[in-house]
Amino acid sequence: MNERDFADLAAGHALNALSDADERAYQEALASNPHWDSHVRDASEAIAALSDIVEPVDPPASVRASLLERIADLPQQTDVPPALDEDKEDFAAAGPAPVEPDATPARPASWGRRRWFTLAASIVAVLVLGFGAASIGQYVTRPASVVALEQIENAPDAQSASVTMPDGGSATAHWSASTGQSVLVTDGMPALSDDQTYELWFVRGETPIAAGIFETDAEGRATAILDGEFHSGDTIAVTIEPAGGSPDGTPSSAPVVAVATA
């Protein structure tokens, strides 16, 4: 299974829409590839955001009728072998017939069909909960940083602060102690060379704590979530580090952004 297949299964798992076989495949893939857990987190956060911001409503009766009609149109399969005609020759008595090798090698079942079934089941689950079909694509595919920013802004203790850099760029930190989340939104940040990256930090007292790296677009804009739990009084800082982040887990340069939250 590749990572794209796993991401699809993670979305189905978050909606409790996987078959038993797909759930086993999902659990086995996660155990073998723990670094794919970001897909699990993103899917769970997206579903949580859906439940937080949309009021459930009763779906119209036409939805159930339409689904049943479509199911009835699907080709049916059966595992029951056809009955033998007793008036015909008893081929069993003649022994097994020779089997000609198939020139085309057998191929494993396509994950594509399973993936589409999972997504279809997810959409049905969303409809039953009262969400529109268009909403699932809009919300489930949103970046985790955008979801976190929305959750922060909806929190009762949401706060933000902005700083302006000497070259005119700006950065606004958003945080909420009750959610433990923080997000940095930038505009006009200077472009970096290919061997550099921006790195986020919580500065807790005198101790810098690495909180992930991020890139900006051509206009120096980014919405970056800080990895780890925000604590009241933290300073949210950004440094310029070698590509991939600080090699020793400590800032290798002075911060270009520092936003105090106390």
Question: How many distinct helices?
Answer: 7
Can you give the mean pLDDT? 77
Major sheet attributes:
4 strands, antiparallel
Strand order of the largest sheet: 1-2-3-6
Q: Please, how many domains?
A: 2
Question: How far is the N terminus from the C terminus?
Answer: 46 Å
* Shape, per Cα inertia axes: elongated
Q: Work out the helicity level.
A: 25-40%
> How do the helices and strands follow one another from N- to C-terminus?
HHHHHHHEEEEEEEE
Beta-strand residue fraction: 15-25%
Rg, alpha carbons? 27 Å
Overall SS class: alpha+beta
Give me the count of strands: 8
**Poorly predicted parts:** 101-113, 127-139
Membrane topology: Single-pass membrane protein
Main location: membrane
Subcellular location: Cell membrane; Membrane
Keywords: Cell membrane, Membrane, Transcription, Transcription regulation, Transmembrane, Transmembrane helix
What does this structure look like?
This protein is of the alpha+beta class. It has two domains: 1-71 and 111-142, no CATH class; 149-260. Helix content is 35%, strand content 20%. The protein contains seven helices and eight strands. It has helices spanning 3-14, 20-32, 37-53, 61-73, 111-129, 133-140, 144-154, and strands at residues 159-164, 170-176, 181-187, 196-204, 207-214, 222-225, 235-242, 257-260. Strands 1-2-3-6 form a four-stranded antiparallel sheet, with helices on one face. It has a four-stranded antiparallel sheet with strand order 5-4-7-8, with no helix packed on it. Helix 1 packs parallel to helix 3 (37-53) and helix 3 (37-53) runs parallel beside helix 7. The protein is elongated. The two termini are 46 Å apart. 23% of the residues are buried. It is found in: Cell membrane; Membrane. Its main location: membrane. This is Regulator of SigK. Residues 120-254 form the Anti-sigma K factor RskA C-terminal domain. GO terms for molecular function: sigma factor antagonist activity.
